[in-house]
Amino acid sequence: MTTSIHITALDAIVNVNSLFTVAVFIGLAWTGNPTDPNNTLVVDPACSATPKIAEDLISFHVYSFSSFLFSSLIALALKQALRITRNPEFHPSELFARVNKRLFRVGMLVSGAGSAFGCGFLMMALVDMVQIKLGTLACGSGHSFAAVVPLVILVPIALLSYVCVVLYAFTR
User: Fold this and answer.
1) Which residue ranges traverse the bilayer (predicted)?
2) Among candidate residues 143, 111, 146, the one with its CA nearest the CA of residue 40
3) Cα 108 to Cα 8: distance, rounded to the nearest angstrom
């Protein structure tokens, strides 16, 4: 029973990471060339994003992708370890191998942390994309703030609830 719950949880991590990885690539494709002046909705040229913001956008997308990939690979490795230890074909002596519970918990915690970091980096990339498309936050653009404020409120709340659930599962 516990093993099927763990496998289901690991599958969920991999599935969510896959969706967010698709979002990363869509974000990169949609952004196109961030330094292209025709690639923006900003009316005032003084509010246009700097090349530093464009560099940060690409960097945060790469960090996000790396975090999601890391998390998924750890989750898949843990899932495979569980399946191997539960399958008699891999154990000719008819004795099942045991999974180190402490190491398994650490692996799940690390996988969850990778997903959380990926979400954080994806959120920062989206903030930079808003600044490129709608104008920098330093200019006080109402459209930029309207797009960014819900993002920086809702994503951390969701991340906090995710981290709480992961920590709860880690202690059980």
Assistant:
1) 12-31, 60-82, 103-127, 147-170
2) 143
3) 12
